[in-house]
Write a structure and sequence with these properties.
The chain is α+β, with helices and mostly antiparallel strands. It has four domains: 89 residues, Beta Complex (RNA Polymerase Alpha Subunit, Chain A, domain 2), CATH 2.170.120.30; 51 residues, no CATH class; 98 residues, 60s Ribosomal Protein L30, Chain: A (2-Layer Sandwich), CATH 3.30.1330; 186 residues, Phosphoribosyl-aminoimidazole Synthetase, Chain A, domain 2 (Alpha-Beta Complex). 31% of the residues lie in helices and 29% in strands. The chain has 15 helices and 22 strands. It has a seven-stranded mixed beta sheet with strand order 17-20-16-21-18-22-19, sandwiched between helices. Strands 6-4-1-3-7 form a five-stranded mixed beta sheet. Strands 12-15-13-14 form a four-stranded mixed beta sheet, with helices on one face. Helix 6 packs parallel to helix 7, helix 8 packs antiparallel against helix 9 and helix 11 packs parallel to helix 13. The chain is globular and about 75 Å long. The N terminus is likely disordered.
């Protein structure tokens, strides 16, 4: 009897083991609290740590100005790299890498040919508390360079055109600008140079010209980054049709009596950086004195006439893919108001607004997409309504899927919405239907006036995954934000 009793299965509720849910919950909470405390101690209270960054290229300030003015040039040492061992809290070290820690050696003290020893300084990236970090060890105490005499020589430019254009196209006269190049180098390197030869292959050429112009007033407080934003914004019009920028001309207004010229120089330098990044050349420009700073570009690009993406090319069934998050208008307003968190807002604005739409345009061309637009002053809603009217379709935006830059919705809820965004919504209201369940704040942000926003690509529904994968392979984000519907009576822009 006793053996039978001990071996039998429980047959009552009282005899069954009970699952203690509250005990499990307490254990899970305890583990999470322990992890949170560990992270806090690790990031905030841990002792200082060290990190070694190797092969940082040395930058030489004054190489192209101070030295050149003295008819001097670097012959060796210009490719020097340095290893740095940096000490500081972990929360500061994680912000640093080979790409954002700069080592700078000044050449301003050099006034003769020969071998020179240069001191160097370290520049840490924005956001690093410099009083908390230091260089503990470096692979070089000084930078050794050899300086030689710089010679100047002017040589003519000769252009040779090879190949034949496609049937139905013709070439005009070849115009060289400039016709003469000024070369500066060592004397021995210049002795045998008699001309600069340029070869242009036009075999099968069918390219058409794209011309655009765009000018901005300042955003944020950094003139160089403002120049980058204005240039990226102007270049986007070429990218939006699937084109490739070829040349650009500066357009600038500047109050010379009120603002140091160094600020103007920084703006132009920032613009040039984006022109070069786009693979285009700066071909001059025009400046005038004005009460307010303004800067932009006139951009010339080229595009295959059979592969132009149009803002009137939407077709029912297309999906709409956006390549940058929204909210630069709100961020710019928060920066002007010096609102809490405006420092991070400015960094986020520059991060997205200086980013070229070149990769998005590459996907547009690779997939031979027929419709696209860049998102700028009219906001996402304004530009998509423009596309809907031009294409004679209806566009539906899924407001729940819209991406926003960090803190944009919080700033907007505080009322930091630019007047232009409200104006966009009023202008589009008679052709827009807003579903009753759409969040009112998001409905307003659909029309937030953007600066240098992303592209919207119209992608056949069956190729959406391909488009997103192509973007990801190029390091670009992408969000599915809407669809194209057949034309019907009523509004042509639906917010759902």
């Amino acid at each position: 009897m006793s053996e039978w009793m001990s071996d039998r299965e429980p047959n009552t509720e009282a005899e069954k083991p009970r699952f203690n849910r509250s005990k499990v919950v307490r254990i899970v909470i305890s583990i999470l609290v322990a992890i949170a405390m560990w992270l806090y101690v690790d990031l905030e209270r841990a002792p200082e740590r060290t990190m070694t960054i190797r092969d940082i290229p040395v930058e030489f300030s004054g190489e192209n100005t101070t030295l050149a003015d003295k008819n001097l040039m670097l012959l060796s040492g210009y490719d020097t790299t340095i290893d740095l061992k940096i000490r500081g809290p972990k929360r500061e070290l994680v912000k640093m890498n080979r790409d954002n820690v700069r080592v700078i050696a000044s050449t301003s003290s050099i006034d003769s040919v020969g071998v020179h020893q240069l001191d160097w300084t370290v520049s840490f990236p924005d956001g690093v508390v410099r009083t908390n970090v230091s260089v503990e060890k470096a692979s070089l105490s000084q930078i050794t360079v050899t300086v030689g005499e710089l010679y100047t020589k002017e040589v003519p430019v000769e252009c040779q055109v090879v190949g034949e254009v496609a049937e139905g196209y013709f070439t005009g006269d070849v115009v060289l600008d400039p016709e003469v190049l000024t070369l500066r180098a060592q004397r021995d390197d210049l002795l045998n140079v008699s001309c600069a030869k340029l070869t242009v292959d036009i075999s099968g050429a069918t390219r058409s010209v794209v011309q655009t112009v765009d000018v901005l007033s300042p955003l944020g407080n950094n003139p160089r980054l403002f120049g980058q934003v204005a240039a990226a914004n102007a270049l986007s019009d070429v990218y939006a049709v699937g084109g490739v920028p070829w040349s650009a001309m500066n357009i600038a207004a500047f109050p010379a009596q009120d603002v140091p010229l160094e600020v103007f120089a920084e703006i132009l330098a920032g613009g040039l950086e984006k022109i070069v990044e786009a693979g285009a050349v700066l071909a001059g420009g025009h400046t005038l004195e004005d009460a307010e700073i303004k800067y932009g570009l006139s951009v010339t690009g080229y595009v295959d006439p059979d592969a132009v993406a149009s803002n009137a090319g939407l077709r029912p069934g297309d999906a709409l893919v956006l390549t940058k998050p929204l909210g630069t208008g709100v961020l710019a307003t928060a920066i002007k108001a010096q609102w809490d968190g405006s420092g991070k807002a400015e960094a986020d604005l520059y991060r997205w607004a200086t980013h070229l739409n070149a990769n998005a345009a590459e996907v547009l061309r690779a997939m031979n997409l027929k419709a696209a637009t860049d998102i700028t002053g009219f906001g996402l809603g304004g530009h998509l309504l423009e596309m809907a009217r031009g294409s004679r379709v209806v566009v539906e935006i899924d407001t729940a899927s819209l991406p926003f830059i960090d803190n944009v919705e919080a700033f907007a809820s505080d009322g930091l919405i630019p007047a232009g965004s409200y104006a966009n919504r009023r202008h589009c209201s008679c052709r827009t239907f807003v579903s009753p369940d759409v969040d009112s704040l998001r409905a307003t942000l659909v029309f937030d006036a953007q600066t240098s926003g992303g592209l919207v690509l119209a992608v056949p529904q069956e190729r959406v995954e391909e488009a997103l994968e192509r973007l990801a392979a190029l390091g670009e984000p992408g969000w599915l934000v809407g669809h194209v519907l057949p034309l019907r009576d009523g509004p042509q822009l639906l917010l759902s």
